[in-house]
Write a structure and sequence with these properties.
- Helix content is 49%, strand content 0%.
- The chain contains four helices and no strands.
- The chain has helices spanning 10-23, 27-38, 55-58, 63-74.
- Helix 1 (10-23) crosses helix 2.
- The longest helix is centred in the first third of the chain and has 14 residues, at 10-23.
Length: 85
C-alpha cells in the first residue's frame, strides 16, 4: 500500500528524519516504525531482551526446594466454602 501525506508540519518532518538517521533506515521505514509505536503494536524489529545480569543476587531453587515450597502452599490454596456463602 502507498500513502501520501500532505501538509506535514516541519517539526514532524524533522522528527521523522531524525528517527530515520537514528535507526539508520529509510524515511518510509521510520514512519512505519513510528506509527507502530504510536499504535502500541510492536514491529518485527522489536525484540524482547531478557537480561541475566542480576541472577546472581536472586539465587535459584533446586527441584526439591521448589517442590517443598509448593507443598507448604497447598493448604493455603484450599477454598473454605463456608466463607463464600
Amino acid at each position: 500500500m502507498q500513502l501520501t501525506i500532505r501538509g506535514l508540519p516541519p517539526e514532524m518532518e524533522d522528527a521523522v528524519r531524525s528517527e530515520a538517521r537514528k535507526e539508520r533506515t529509510s524515511l518510509n521505514k521510520a514512519v512505519i516504525g513510528l506509527l507502530e509505536k504510536a499504535l502500541g503494536k510492536p514491529g518485527p524489529r522489536e525484540q524482547i531482551t531478557i537480561s541475566h545480569d542480576l541472577d546472581r543476587f536472586c539465587g535459584a531453587w533446586t527441584d526439591e526446594e521448589a517442590s517443598e515450597l509448593e507443598n507448604r502452599f497447598r493448604d493455603n490454596r484450599k477454598i473454605d466454602m463456608e466463607l463464600w456463602d
